[in-house]
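Q: Got a minute? One more chain.
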Amino acid sequence: MRPITVPDPLLGEIDITDVAPIIDSTHFQRLRSVKQLGTTVYLYPNATHSRFAHCIGAYHRAKQRIKSWRDTSRDYKKKGINVLSSQEERNIAIYALTHDIGHGPLSHVIEDVTSFNHEENGKHVIKDGIKKVIITCGGNPTIVHDMLGKKNPLGSIVDDKVLGVEKWDYLERDLHFSGAGVLAPPHLKDIEKHVIWFKNQLMITSEAVHPVRNLILFYWNAYKEVYFSPKSLFYQRLFQKMIHKELAAGTLKETELWNLNDGEIEGRLKTSVHGEVRSLFERGMQRTLHRAIVFRLAPYLHEEHCEKNVHVSPANTSFLTAFEHLDADALEKIEHKIADIAGIDSIDILFVPVSRASHKRFSPHTVPVLMSNLKDTVDLFDHYTDMRPTLKTHEESFLAVRIFCNQRYLPKLIKKAKEIKALLETHIQ
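A: Always. Here it is, folded:
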């Protein structure tokens, strides 16, 4: 049989022969029209790469890692390092390919306004949608399902927050296509040589301690540059607000929403039967809503790069995290109260809090390190005692509450900044 390959600008030719039936399925093909970065494309117009491409990239990286482990030295094998069965290898590769099969439109945007997330939806797709083709490709749907549900430790080879192959793929892919002004990530191929599977854990050998430390710190810089820039968060919140209105009115059902792609949901919102949704969509596309008031921890006020006519004010941690559990209804109520204080229409206000909850899915964790005697392991964060406080500092630097407003009303809103802060402080109680 002639090999089936896919050209990839980052990874070269990728052989997909073994998993072609999965890729040809309707569920997987839908990912062609789901952007990897969702609404971030409104900030980085070249970031139009898809979940489809990312999943194939993660599959290729998984196959590469498995191949390198298969070629592991006898000394490692005798110690039980990098030992996987052929069936485990097959299921890991298929999980890498299908780990995002349940993603809805606009990346993670809809998860805050629906009753389940992409992993729960993905488990449903694996169980009821692509089960037969997984079997056709030599995989076990139950094991792949358990990997997605974090019930099988082998899944961490794909989704570990520091060393997972899908994380490495989206990091390189997102930065490449966004053109974000950040330094290139540490050389992942060099780190890959020291990533091992031992005692049902993904870990590194001691030679890679410093590069992996740098990789973890690099993640945070990438998050700040791409995923959590003010404009990225603005568009996430704007689309969540519009979609919530459609769901609340019953003109869009959750099950229908999860089956849409990016273009389809954008079309639905642009032509919505609800005038307020259409107006919000127009404000977003015409960029008429701008930062007006920003609250951040005092040490990071200088990091809020914005126009001169923006009110930037210090606030404490309890204030900045007081809104992390609020749903779309509660956020809209706050917008109405802010609008009443300023004497403007609430449709011209967008309240955008940022919190630990907002970025917890990106927060890197520590890594086990196997020492040179191939027996003892240490915690990377114990090896580098500065890591925990450094990461805490990075996390604090993300905390912010931003209020966007129609440009014509900026002076009017800013004059009421003290009253608005007093209103928001009631949520700390």
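A: The domain at 5-228+359-396 is CATH 1.10.3210.10 (Hypothetical protein af1432).
Q: Perfect, thanks.
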